[in-house]
Every structure is written in C-alpha cells, then in structure tokens.
Amino acid sequence: METKKTYEGMFLLDAGNPDFNAASEPVRNILIRYEAELLSFKPWDERRLAYEILGRKRGLYVLTYFKIDPLKVREVEHDCRLDERVLRALILRRDRLTPEEIAADTPATTVRAPAPAAEGAAPIEGVSPAEIPDVLEVPDIDEPQA
User: Fold this and answer.
1) Is the pTM of this model over 0.90?
2) 3-state helix, strand, coil in the chain (%, to 5)
3) Which domains occur in the chain, in start order?
4) 35-93 pLDDT, tens digit each
5) What is the DSSP track for 19-41?
C-alpha cells in the first residue's frame, strides 16, 4: 500500500533564466516523474551566492511543498544531483503542516511596505517624502561600474 507523506523542498537553481517557469522546469519535471502531488511551487528569492557553485555567482531559490511516497525521496534527491541545472536540493519531511504555512508569502512574493521614518529624524529641506526611495539600489561589488 502506497502512503504519501508531505515534504518541503528548497531547490537552488541557476538564475540565468529570468522566466521562473522555465528556470524551475527541471525540478517540476523530476517531481512529476516520481508521481509527486505538488501542493505549492513558488520562488523563494534570487540572491548572490556566498561562494561560486559550478561557476554560478547568483542562484534562484525555489520553495516547494509536495506529497510523495517516502521510498521515492532518495530517487528525487539523486536526480537533482544528476541535473546540472539544479545546484543544490534540500528535502525535509513535514508531517504537521497547515494550509496557511503552505500558502505563506515568500520574500519573492511579498510586496515590501515603505519603511517608517525614524523618530526625531529631521526632514530633508526641499525634498518631499514621496521623492525619497524606499530601497536604495546598491550595485554589486563584483560588477564593473559603467
């Protein structure tokens, strides 16, 4: 008798493709191949890596929740190691997972609210608060400046 258990998977993929569906296709195909029931499949974030992995400096993190036969988890992990588009994979069993946890926003899906002004901060003369950006763009140190 096949009994499926709930798992959480965090996959690190090559961030070279800006299309999430195309970039995450290898993981989705592996899970479907082993008859996993996808509960949630969403981007976590795209970040600069602390160190290069297979020559990549940036990675796309994908968070998934799925149900699968526990005997097939090792095969999923093995296929992830064989696919060079999947840089890293971590799969954890999650028995007590609520629908709210599965549907929760990730850093990539959360809309950032403007930061509140510090108490006692003096306004900048001649600049309205609407003209001050919520987040300052800081270039990567590794990238040459134009």
Assistant:
1) no
2) 25, 35, 45
3) 9-103 (3.30.70.60)
4) 999 999 999 989 899 988 888 889 999 999 999 999 999 999 999 999 989 999 999 99
5) -HHHHTHHHHHHHHHTT-EEEEE
